[in-house]
Amino acid sequence: MSSLSRELVFLILQFLDEEKFKETVHKLEQESGFFFNMKYFEDEVHNGNWDEVEKYLSGFTKVDDNRYSMKIFFEIRKQKYLEALDKHDRPKAVEILVKDLKVFSTFNEELFKEITQLLTLENFRENEQLSKYGDTKSARSIMLVELKKLIEANPLFRDKLQFPTLRNSRLRTLINQSLNWQHQLCKNPRPNPDIKTLFVDHSCGPPNGARAPSPVSNPLLGGLPKAGGFPPLGAHGPFQPTASPVPPPLAGWMSSPSSVPHPAVSAGPIALGAALKHPRTPPTNPALDYPSAESEHVSKRTRPMGISDEVNLGVNMLPMSFPGQAHGHSPAFKAPDDLPKTVARTLTQGSSPMSMDFHPIKQTLLLGDIGLWEVGSRERLVQKTFKVWDISKCSMPLQAALVKEPVVSVNRVIWSPDGSLFGVAYSRHIVQLYSYHGGEDMRQHLEIDAHVGGVNDISFSTPNKQLCVITCGDDKTIKVWDAATGVKRHTFEGHEAPVYSVCPHYKENIQFIFSTALDGKIKAWLYDNMGSRVDYDAPGRWCTTMAYSADGTRLFSCGTSKDGESYIVEWNESEGAVKRTYQGFHKRSLGVVQFDTTKNRYLAAGDDFSIKFWDMDNVQLLTAIDGDGGLQASPRIRFNKEGSLLAVSGNENVIKVMANSDGLRLLHTFENVSSESSKPAINSLATAAAATSAAADRSANVVSIQAMNGDARNMVDVKPVITEESNDKSKIWKLTEVSEPSQCRSLRLPENLRVAKRNERNATGKATASLPPQQWQPASGILMTNDAAENNAEEAVPCFALSKNDSYVMSASGGKISLFNMMTFKTMATFMPPPPAATFLAFHPQDNNIIAIGMDDSTIQIYNVRVDEVKSKLKGHSKRITGLAFSNVLNVLVSSGADAQLCVWNTDGWEKQRSKVLPLPQGRPNTAPSDTRVQFHQDQAHFLVVHETQLAIYETTKLECMKQWPVRESSAPITHATFSCDSQLVYASFMDATICVFSSANLRLRCRVNPSAYLPASLSNSNVHPLVIAAHPQEPNMFAVGLSDGGVHIFEPFESEGKWGVAPPAENGSANGAVAAPSVGASASDQPQR
Q1: pLDDT, tens digit, for every residue of 350-373?
Q2: What distance lies between CA 513 and its chain's CA centroid?
Q3: Which pLDDT value is given to residue 520?
Q4: How far is CA 234 from CA 6, 11, 470, 509, in A?
Q5: Is the peptide bond before 966 cis (omega within 30 degrees of 0)?
Q6: pTM for this one?
Q7: What does the pLDDT look like over 411-455, one tens digit per residue?
Q8: What are the two backbone dihedrals, phi and then psi, of residue 982, each rounded to the nearest 5 degrees?
Q9: Region label for 891, one of left (φ > 0), alpha (ψ between -120 and 50) or beta (otherwise)
């Protein structure tokens, strides 16, 4: 809601209070959440109206919003409970205990037990802590003092405890001013007009009953409004002077519409572009275009005078021209033939790039995460990994977050307008700015602890001709920083969800910022700290980015809903409405779709393993290209400034650079020049040009928005260790065999890890293949111990799962399920005693209180820890559950069982959507039931299936097998397999102690580690083999195996190699990992005999 709309609510509250509508006043206070009436709250508490107290509070906060809110609700419910006990109304006390107080047991089980024990006392004052409890009235007064302190300290009540200072009857005054102004516009104004209604505009009747002339011909109106005539958006009254004019297109988003269109000034309709570019204001009425009483919605505005109904464009209109609004179509960029669709370069990044940006001046200089490529010469100039420059200057929350979880990913990279700086936004608090001086000369410039949580976007802008950095984050704020000094200039608050993207822009010397949040809200801000001027819903209402055309005249947004529906739309800025919606997206996008604009004419988006193009003036899809295959499901894309090159993220950690004919000529000039000539110096930081379009290059996987989507371990800043592979297909590929300990780095962990502090040799304390790790344990010395099975412990199925952010671990070993705090190792709760026993556990990715529990009786129970209740019981398997995996993009749960069956369940209603029995290879004996495991790919749309007879990649929505690698009949069965942290590799272990590394894109074997490479000779003929395999959360080429003898081995390739073998060449010119599916029974001819 815009700031003016918010102020209107305050005016209505004042009016209702003056008119003695007391109940309505407090209802509006609660529903709007703008003003917390402490006096009313105190009265209700004193009167013991507990239901009304909680109902009123619910308009401002919920129990679990923060610790202050939790304490507020606890104190209220505790007082209600004690009063029931004091009246000896035990049934009521029990009801309050179960209904209202049990929710707090999750957070403090001991306190809940102590409260429960009060029921056993004849007088609860026998409890030492309650011995001073007086009568009800004094107890309520004492509690109120505490509640007021909590409310005042609660950030959710910030700016809501003070009613703005207003003159009496302010709303009546404004209405009277409006009526006076309407009266001035009358052709024949009467000295004492009789105003009988506010429902229509006032007009005095003509003398002798003659018809009043149309206001169109009234000389007071003059011509059409002139430029700059719209009212200042922060003004509080309609007659204040225009100190800071707002450009008409932006003003159109920030005022309110009339349901009755104004009459046209001329006989014919005025062209939309002309009206927007040349508005005029009556000389005697500098602020006519204000909301009227007939406004449909306080966030929209009346049309500027002179725009007829004919320009109110709907969605999906046919292409139209707009006189007076040139779009700057370049004659050199004519047709689809000029689109960059030829793969000119393939760059191996070393990790999947989260964001890319071409240099604004040097068109072939590509920034990908914290790496710099000279695309023309294929040379990687600079590559850096995340490192805090000065930890002492970081806030305590950031330091604590880095200690608890040091994994940090790149969310966004962007060049400054002149290319002398670039900024990097990270998934935890930090923004880093580097200065660039040409060639490999990249220097640290500024490090800013910008936001609490992730920094989701970064951009540059030049308000007041001063270069600034704009950031947004999980803490629901947008901040503006001085790019030279790092001093914070502005903080914009008003979003109610994490802010996903920012798009700074300017029109007619007015600078502003659009922002989008994860609740789908679009807001706009001027650099004046006076609140949002816009409150609109983006199509899809989830992850949305915005961008202007290169000439700044047309505004677009691209977004994806939680259901996977994607949209690109063009906005009518004057109306704040969607002008056209572009068609051609996949029915359910496999990730968050990213887009970009180029040449004032074309739009491009990464969707369905391809790049799709649209002409801006046509909603139909122009063309789609797949970049010779191998693209990600929703690839990140970025044009260079001229539109001749397009960078696209692909599988196998590659960046593909597409080019048109101009781009190919540009790249060709670099092929025969020295590396020095390709690195011209770039001027140091100077006054920037106009703010650039901020089309956001964001990860297709929304897991990086941690507060919304849970486990961020899939989105890590993996260290680049892979060098660019040759594209020479004439080379003969050979499987890499590792048979000797000297061929890789491996380490067997000692059986008794000592508890010690970090030392200089192993500063991180983490496991590597070079140095043994150190066991971590809290100072209390407590151990996490499961409830043991009463029967044979050997038959128990051990299982555990980590919550999002690794705050909790849930575990079972045949007995009750235990929930442990990862920091203290304390047992938070135990529940669900057998039978049946738990065999697999999984946390919901968005709510730690919801867990999926696979049982040995073939059911799956959806359990809410907070209320200690099974919400759903899923039946579809015939044998025990052996695998569970959530997709936080598709909102589904995939399950697998010992019956070799796969099931897909909708997490909204927990209905079964699809099921399929895993096809077992023909001729293989059907022996005892075998575990089937499932794990989602980083794209959250495909998942890995692991069975002793095969590896397979499935597409989730259709439950379709895309790739399969069957084990030959004579080979040892698979014991376990997992994706690497970047999902580019699959590590698999076998019963004969062999470990194999596959390319996940096509499930083709690239490296084999034989037992002789890591097992001593004394064990070579034994039955010791890997039971489980785990990928390192940051290093894509590091993994560990747990052996049947209790040993743990860590593996990584030598630095000189940097990777596990080389990917085999693609057959039929395609290496795309999830498009061309071979026949399920085929045993791929490239599969070497193991």
Answers
A1: 777 888 899 887 878 888 878 888
A2: 19
A3: 87
A4: 12, 16, 22, 17
A5: no
A6: 0.41
A7: 899 999 888 899 999 888 889 999 988 888 888 899 998 898 889
A8: -100, 5
A9: left
Per residue in 126-149, pLDDT (tens digit) is 888 888 888 888 899 999 999 999
Return phi, psi of residue 838, to 5°: -75, 135
Amino acid identity of residue 451, one-letter, is H
Evaluated on CA atoms 868, 874, 880, 881, the torsion sign reads negative
826-857 burial, b at 16+ Cβ within 10 Å, e below that, comes to ebbbebbebebbbbbbbbbbbebebbbbbbbb
At 266 the three-state DSSP class reads coil
CA–CA dist 276, 229 (Å, integer): 12
Closest CA to 421 of 375, 471, 367, 374: 367
What is the C-alpha separation between 651 and 1004, in angstroms, rounded? 14
CA distance 804 to 842: 10
Rg (CA), the chain: 33
Cα–Cα dist 1002/980, whole Å: 14
In this structure, are residues 523 and 494 in contact, taking their beta carbons and an 8 Å threshold? yes
Q: What is the secondary structure of 750-778 as a DSSP string?
A: PSSPPB----STTSS----SSS---B---
**1031 is written with which tokens?**
């990928």
240-261: string of b/e by CB count within 10 Å (b at 16+)? eeeeebbbbbbbbbbbbbbeee
Instruction: Report which residue type is found at 893.
Output: L
Distances (CA, A) of 549 to 78, 321, 460, 463: 58, 16, 17, 20
Query: What is the CA 2 to chain-centroid distance, rounded?
Result: 24
Cα 595–Cα 572–Cα 280 angle in degrees, nearest 5:
135
The per-residue DSSP string of 324-359 comes to T------TTS-SGGGS--EEEEEEE-SS--S-EEE-
User: In this structure, which amino acid lies at residue 325?
Assistant: Q
Q: Tokens for 425?
A: 């936004």
Mean pLDDT, all residues of the chain: 76
pLDDT at 706 over 50: no
Q: Dump pLDDT digits (tens) for 506-529.
A: 876 788 999 999 888 899 998 887
Q: Mind listing the pLDDT tens digit for each residue in 977-1029?
A: 999 988 889 999 999 999 999 999 889 999 999 998 898 877 766 788 999 99
Within 10 angstroms of residue 170's Cβ, the number of other Cβ atoms is: 18
* 470 phi/psi in degrees, rounded to 5: -110, 130
Q: Nearest-CA neighbor of 940 among 983, 902, 1000, 888?
A: 888
SS3 content of the chain, % helix, strand, coil (to 5): 20, 30, 50
The CB density around residue 441, as the number of other CB atoms within 10 Å, is 13
Q: Which two tokens stand for residue 20?
A: 């003695």
**Local structure of 656: helix, strand or coil:** strand
How long is the chain? 1090
Least confident of 791-805, 892-906, 1031-1045: 791-805
Q: Which of 225, 328, 322 is nearest to 274 (CA)?
A: 322
Please give the C-alpha separations between residue 80 and each of 48, 579, 876, in angstroms, as whole numbers.
8, 54, 45
Instruction: Count other Cβ atoms within 10 Å, centred on residue 268.
Output: 8
- Tell me the C-alpha to C-alpha distance, in Å, between residue 859 and each of 856, 862, 910, 1015: 7, 10, 13, 39
Q: CA-to-CA distance for 83 and 80, rounded, in angstroms?
A: 5
How far apart CA 791 and CA 1003 sit, in angstroms, is 41
966 vs 975: CA distance, rounded Å: 13
Let me know the angle formed at the C-alpha of 32 by 27 and 33, rounded to the nearest 5 degrees: 100
3-state secondary structure of 562: coil
**CA torsion sign, 670 to 672 to 677 to 679?**
positive
